[in-house]
Each structure stands twice: as structure tokens, then as C-alpha cells.
Design the sequence.
């Protein structure tokens, strides 16, 4: 069985290394497949990706905010800019209103002006509805696949508390998109997630002075909640208009700055590690249940195993822990 799986995995790994779109598509389907025997192959694939050196250093950006704030439009504007410098771009869009997946629906909505149809851009849309609890897991795996091909990986999600925490864990930089005067500030203060975003963008600045007011509100709210230590990142609040292509360069500059600072301070590495840890625990809990996870000592034991020095990827560790759980729960 594993020989069969490995052949397929080898083929996919080669296809991904060549940037082949069919392979990207198939790999994304595989890592998103809930069936047990496919999970095995998916972990093998992810392990293969983790242990092969990449020709580029991927960077993951989350874009979150209320429906209609202009996340897709901003993403579209960013993609245009980045394509001008020939950067490869992978996009995962989690769309709560979509029951279909496959990207056609979202591709229309994004009005990607040529962008996503080019070979340097790959868009995958996922429906959030049937993904309760599984979003982070599926998205993390999908992002790993896209990161193996593209320098830039964007994840667009609707900000609804829980999903925001999840996406913050699996990106290097989280951008929150607000729109003028929509009461976003208050809403997100209540949800207590204002600490998560690394960059705030008030979009639709073309609609008038309300944008500037919303920006001021956000800035003072952030000033109240933040207790920065020296060297801490202070989230900037930017103005933009995706429609008029204003503020896009400033946003790109802020992304570059956050990335550089994260690399220098070690924060980026720590964030990636905790994201991987969450993936490992989720992945095992989904497959074996809380009961199974407890057989090997729970989330804490998983964290310990991941922290153990060695050249193996987290996916190999997850495979190994899975086998241990299987032995532990087997009768007799
Ligand atoms: N006036 C104006 N409208 C915008 C801007 N950005 C997006 N929109 C509009 O806002 C609506 C929602 O945009 P969309 O990108 O789909 O938002 P999302 O749900 O956050 O992805 C669409 O009708 C857009 O045309 C902008 O900068 N200015
Ligand atoms: Mg959208």
C-alpha cells in the first residue's frame, strides 16, 4: 500500500518542483482529503516537501476582515504589482458563502484582471462551511504546498474571531482590512482580536473623509490596547483604495518591513513553529480523536516530540505518532 502511495507522492513532488499546475491542483486535493488512506499519502507528500530544499524563501500573508471590506480587491491590486516584478503567487481563499470549491466562483468575484489566469498565479478557493474545526489544518497543508512553488502565498479569510486566530498562526504577516465607518473597530474590539493583525488597512479611502476618521479610531484603539516593549512591532494603520490603486505600494512596503523585522528578531521562526505545532495536534486529533491523542500524552507530548532535535519534518513526526496511537488503542 505504501509503495503505491509513494509512487504517486514521488510524481507529485517532481511535478511541484517543476511548478506544474496539474500537480499543484492534485497535491492540494490530496492534502485536503479526509480519508484515512489519503491522509497517509498527504503526510508523505508534506514530509517530502519539508525535507527538500526550496529554490526560494516563501512568505505567507493572511488577509482578513469583514465581508465586503475589499479583501479580494486589495489582493487583486497586490497581485498586479507583484506580477510586474515577476513574483510567483499562490492564493488560498476561504469563502464562507461558497458551497462549491474550485475557484471559478471566487475568480469571478476577484475580478482578477488577467492575474490569476497567468501561470505565475495559482488560486484555490475553499468553502469554509463544511470545515468546522478543520480550517487551520486544511489551510496549513495547502499553504505548505503552495509555498513549495511560489514566493508569495496569500490566504484570504473572513474575520470571524476563531478563524482569525487560526489564520494568524499559519501566516508570517496578518493584514486586517477595515472599511470606513462600518463599526469594524468596535466589533473587533469586542471580539478581542485586535492584537492579532500586524498591519491594518482602511480600504475605500476614495469614498471620502470617513476613511481617515476610521483610521484615527483604529489608531487610538490600538494605542490603548497595546503595551509595546522595546523592539516590538507596532502595527501601522494604512489608508488604501483598491479601486483607485492607492496605497498599494505603502502596503507592500509595510509587508516587507514586517517580514524583515520578523526574520531579524527570530519572531517569524517562533511563529512558524507554533503554527506547525497546532497543525500536528489538529491533524492527530482529527484522525484519532481526543481519546487517541490522550493515549500518547496529549498536545503537550506532541509539542515535546516536535521539539526533539533531529532532521525529520513535523509531518514525519505526525505519521510516527499516528502509528503509536494505533498501537496504543489496539485491543490485546
Ligand atoms: N469605492 C471602493 N469600493 C471598493 C474598493 N475596494 C473594493 N470595493 C468594492 O467593495 C465590494 C466588496 O469588495 P471585495 O473585494 O469583494 O470584498 P471582500 O468581501 O472583502 O473580498 C465590491 O463591490 C468592490 O467593488 C475601494 O477601494 N473603493
Ligand atoms: Mg473576497
Sequence:
Amino acid at each position: 500500500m505504501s509503495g503505491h502511495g509513494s509512487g504517486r507522492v514521488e510524481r507529485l513532488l517532481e511535478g511541484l518542483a517543476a511548478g506544474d499546475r496539474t500537480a499543484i491542483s492534485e497535491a492540494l486535493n490530496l492534502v485536503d482529503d479526509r480519508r484515512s488512506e489519503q491522509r497517509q499519502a498527504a503526510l508523505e507528500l508534506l514530509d517530502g516537501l519539508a525535507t527538500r530544499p526550496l529554490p526560494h524563501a516563501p512568505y505567507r500573508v493572511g488577509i482578513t476582515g469583514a465581508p465586503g471590506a475589499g479583501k479580494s480587491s486589495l489582493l487583486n491590486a497586490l497581485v498586479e504589482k507583484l506580477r510586474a516584478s515577476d513574483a510567483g503567487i499562490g492564493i488560498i481563499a476561504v469563502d464562507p458563502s461558497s458551497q462549491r470549491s474550485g475557484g471559478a466562483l471566487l475568480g469571478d468575484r476577484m475580478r482578477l484582471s488577467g492575474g490569476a489566469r497567468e501561470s505565475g498565479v495559482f488560486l484555490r478557493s475553499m468553502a469554509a462551511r463544511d470545515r468546522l474545526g478543520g480550517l487551520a489544518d486544511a489551510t496549513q497543508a495547502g499553504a505548505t504546498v503552495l509555498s513549495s512553488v511560489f514566493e508569495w502565498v496569500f490566504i484570504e479569510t473572513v474575520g470571524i474571531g476563531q478563524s482569525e486566530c487560526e489564520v494568524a498562526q499559519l501566516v508570517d504577516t496578518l493584514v486586517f482590512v477595515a472599511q470606513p465607518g462600518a463599526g469594524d473597530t468596535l466589533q473587533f474590539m469586542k471580539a478581542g482580536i485586535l492584537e492579532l493583525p500586524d498591519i491594518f488597512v482602511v480600504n475605500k479611502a476614495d469614498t471620502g473623509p470617513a476613511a481617515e476618521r476610521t483610521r484615527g479610531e483604529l489608531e487610538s484603539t490600538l494605542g490603548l490596547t497595546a503595551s509595546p516593549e522595546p523592539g516590538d512591532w507596532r502595527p501601522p494603520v494604512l489608508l488604501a483604495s483598491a479601486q483607485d490603486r492607492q496605497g498599494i505600494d505603502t502596503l507592500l512596503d509595510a509587508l516587507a518591513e514586517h517580514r524583515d523585522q520578523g526574520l531579524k528578531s527570530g519572531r517569524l521562526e517562533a511563529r512558524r513553529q507554533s503554527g506547525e505545532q497546532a497543525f500536528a495536534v489538529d491533524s492527530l486529533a482529527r484522525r484519532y480523536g481526543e481519546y487517541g491523542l490522550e493515549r500518547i500524552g496529549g498536545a503537550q507530548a506532541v509539542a515535546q516530540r516536535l521539539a526533539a532535535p533531529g532532521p525529520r519534518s513535523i509531518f514525519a513526526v505526525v505519521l510516527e505518532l499516528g502509528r503509536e496511537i494505533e498501537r496504543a488503542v489496539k485491543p490485546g
